[in-house]
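Two entries, shown back to back:
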Amino acid sequence: MFIRFFLLSILVGSSLNGMSQKSIHKKYDLFFSWGYNRAAYTKSDFNISGVGYDLTFKDVRAEDYVTTFSLENYFKPANLTIPQYVGRLGMYLNERTSISIGVDHMKYYMILNQNLEIEGQISPQASEKYADTYNNTSHDVPFRFLYFHHSDGLNYANIEIEYNFPLWTSLNMKHSWEVVGNLGIGLVVPKTYVMILNDDVDNRFHIAGGGISAKVGTRFNFFKYFYIEAASKNGFVVMPNVLVNNEKNATANQRFGWTQFYGALGFNISLSRKEKDNVESP
């Protein structure tokens, strides 16, 4: 019934031939959206050093982690932040431009048992099993040698400036379709698990670095106050301060690019909703 009413409203709105058209005043309107993403990552070098070792693992590959879809996993309030999510809160500065803050929660998992080039050295005191000097030679890297993930997650907390370009608007001004694009900058606040030389720690949330991003997408607004958005977002993060252990006698750093595709549902909150008549149609 709702879908039938929704489609009928769009058709009626598009076919109205009133004496005037109206445009919606968005300035200072608030908006909020929530959705879920899939992410992919470029290869990256992972440098890690501690007591008795200093190593660089080159061209490490990683993947995201998708929570199994179910009503409980994705719609139960207590579980909303478990899957890879995107959440935003913002305000329109004028009809086309908005500013917002948000979090892109991605999960970054190193792929297990890779063959990687390694540069550096490990002393016998750090590990008798893996003690050696590594001169950019390829080695199989099992779980106990090195494994890590930013699984809770690779949190990109950011601020964005966005511009929207209208493609279509119904004559009753209740529905519209637009292209959106933005630029963002922010901090990376992961919770990182690190296994190195048979020693592991699941670390706390921490500021590991920062990043930049850009987005392009499409948004369908319906009944003035609600919208559905689909977008592709690309970014680059630099993390010079990845936690390795609680003693802080080891450090790690990493940088890589990422891309994500997401879908989100949002709503607008009008602080001073006004409608203004344009020039009357002949």
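entry 2 starts here
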Amino acid sequence: MNNTTLSNFAQSIHSIGCDISNPEIQNIIKQILSLKSLALPPVCLPDLLLKPRVEAPASFAAATTNTIVPELSAPSVGCGMGIAKTSLTRDEVDADFFERFFKEMRAHLGPRYGFFKNCFLWLGFLKRPKQKYDLNREELERVIREGAPAVLEKYGFSPSLLDAIEYNGSLFTEDEQKKINIKNILPRVSLKTGMHNLGYGFKGNHFLEIQYVEDILDPAQADAWGIQKNQVMIMYHGGGGAIPFHVGRYFGSRKKDRGNVRVTISVAMGKLFFHFFSWEGMTHCWRRFRYYFLPRSFTEIPADSAEGMRLMQALKAALNYSYAFHVAMLKRIQDSLKKTTNNINTEVNLVWDNVHNSILPETISSKTVIVHRHTANHAHPGKPLIVSGFNTTCSYLAVALPGAEARLFSADHGAGGVIKRFHDEGKSRQHPYGHKTYIYQTKEPRIQEAAHITDEGINHVINHLERESIARPVVRLRPLAVFKG
């Protein structure tokens, strides 16, 4: 693509500090621009990149008019991040503290089951043992309908916690809650596995990170959030658990399903049973086959059709479960921290929690559209916005600004791709102050130390978000220890 063509292409999208010269990215975005229901120019954020076996780019948002396009978001709808402040300071934590804390985080986990045992669970021949943070069937159904509010009493939190969760952790109106037929929108496997191991899941790029406030950039806003310099903070990046996993894979034919033969077969069999073994399934069999089984790049599903309304219910149910899953994660953190410090008065307070893979109706410029975000935060003006770095760089907690509306209220959830690219290009170097992060894993090598690099990559992202009036940085956070596995 020559410079003139590239310039014309860039005018069709909102490109914010990202590299769109990659031919593969250009080809994918051209497909998205050809969608008949595209309502507004797509937004390509600074950390734009392609992930393996995912259809749309990451750090990307697109809005459609009255259609749902599952492939415009990740198959892990409901994946999100949160950050909590503690009553501890940097000089109160050390390597021994980190190890004891992460050991406590792994307590109360159920056994791991392989493919065949999961089949027996699905058939009802096996039953998982109930652990401390697990739900019973009644609690699970309440979570699907009500979201985070359904688990506040169970986990000992007050209703004020909901102020720190986007949408107050619940997406259905009371009238919608009454009309939901859970078995119609969620597969049986979700209801079997969704009760267990809530609040835990740090595989892949997911993590739990202990940080401290290195610098305060907006003292008034930091004071309003009760954040002080050298305060210990805990950031988590986790999937939404079993229900979002199955919604993402059952409602679409995703590239993610095609890498593992066993997963491909089990998902295909589950999808067939779920979508077709009912009278309604037979009635809508052709539409369901076309939408969820044919390998198409970007499928436009009318939101006001019977299948579109069913899909939106499933998406909202998955997000509701994700918000409750994150409340369970906060409870695990709270319990683990109190046991580690041997002090029941150690405080853990949520600052903000939101998902960054979502498909939801929103109002933008007085127009109702369906916004699809792929690893992009919803920037709610006046609310916190998490922009994570890497385990060897700083992260930022920012405040979202009204100008975000012009960019589909969307912002990067992190800067991992830019950080790696800048490092490979020699734009960052070893940090002069010798910072390091302890990395704890469940597999060998179980404990590692990683030297920090300078922050050019994450700064590139936060500077562009500020320049576009999407967000303003409030505090800079430095990692001390990371837990993965």
